[in-house]
Amino acid sequence: MTVSRVLNNKGSFSEETRQHVLHVMRELGYRPNRVARSLATAKTLKIGVVVPSISSAYFGEVLEGTERVLWECGYHMLLCNTAVDSRREHAVMDLFEEDRVDGVVVLSSHLPGDELSSYLKKQRAAVVINCDVEPGIAGHIYTDELKSMRMAVKHLQQAGCKCLGYIGLAIETYAGRERHDMFIRACEEVGLSVSSDNIVICDRRMGGLAARRLFKRVPETDGLICFNDEIAAGALRVCFELQRRVPEDVAIVGFDDIFLAELLVPALTTLRLKTTKQEVGAIAARMLLERIEGRSTRDEVVLEHELVVRESAP
């Protein structure tokens, strides 16, 4: 019975017991018959996962955690890359419905909240990360963006910055809108004026062009917060080309702390999740499996950042 509970991720058992069962299975070369299991449980043992960009360093690490947990629990992950295209996302959601997947994980969406909610209502279970959905439709994992922006703005202000700029992603997405709005709010709270000239929206690969545009609009910009580290890397390059010293002339802060951040010159100050990105993915998978089994114990998980101070904004 214990082995059955572990294989089906159902019932109570300790993590030590689960690891022992999985170890013995590997030693014996045991492989469950997935077709028979699917017929017996009325499940397809497939989980649909939506990601806006598989080339993103951030999403790549999150996916590692999601895939690991699903695999250990006997599920296959159907990974669909929408390439930041809402039409492809519509098609992917239709595909998941046709294939009758057991559940869906959405790692950021470019669909309006009502459209995404409509799709997820049709699913047996769903979990989203930083998405705009109706309450109760899906488990939701999201970051406390206001607290994060307050840390970044306060750090730059204490470093002597008086004119802050922000380079972000499209505000049509939940994450893009939240980070954009919280930047404005955090600046206003400490008495820093912000206008539309101080904010540039771009694709994650266009951080350099966005930084050029921002410096042209507001030459006195001496502090820059970027939606992610990839955008910040482009901004660093442009500062070098424009002979703007970092951090003496412009201090730069990114988000995510991808592996590239500490390799840049100067090394990038950034906001890093207190929970590792792999663990975020694992949490999403566990939340989904709980909902599939009808034993969900939580509807939301709030993540927090911590500031990693390096050379770009000491």
Q: How would you describe the overall organization of this protein?
A:
By secondary structure, this protein is an alpha/beta fold. The chain folds into 2 domains: 2-140 and 275-299, Response regulator (Rossmann fold, 3-Layer(aba) Sandwich); 145-273, Response regulator (Rossmann fold, 3-Layer(aba) Sandwich), CATH 3.40.50. The protein contains 11 helices and 12 strands. It has helices at residues 2-8, 15-28, 34-41, 57-72, 86-99, 113-121, 145-158, 174-189, 207-217, 229-241, 277-292; strands at residues 46-51, 76-81, 103-107, 126-129, 139-143, 164-168, 199-201, 223-226, 251-255, 269-273, 300-303, 305-308. It has a 6-stranded parallel beta sheet, sandwiched between helices. Strands 7-6-8-9-10-12 form a 6-stranded mixed beta sheet, sandwiched between helices. Strand 3 (103-107), helix 6 (113-121) and strand 4 form a beta-alpha-beta unit. The longest helix has 16 residues, at 57-72. The radius of gyration is 22 Å and the shape is elongated. The protein starts with a helix and ends in a 6-residue tail after the last strand. The model has no long low-confidence stretch (mean pLDDT 90).
By DSSP, the count of extended strands is 12
- Domain unit count: 2
Beta-strand share of residues: 15-25%
| Proper CATH architecture of the largest domain | 3-Layer(aba) Sandwich
Based on CA atoms alone, the radius of gyration comes out at 22 Å
Q: State the shape.
A: elongated
Structural class: alpha/beta
Instruction: Report the average pLDDT across residues.
Output: 90
- Spatial gap, N to C terminus: 56 Å
Superfamily (CATH H level) name of the largest domain: Response regulator
What is the CATH domain class of the largest domain? Alpha Beta
Strand order of the largest sheet: 2-1-3-4-5-11
- What is the fold-level CATH name, i.e. the topology of the largest domain? Rossmann fold
- Number of helical segments with 4 or more residues: 11
Order of helices and strands: HHHEHEHEHEEHEHEHEHEEHEE
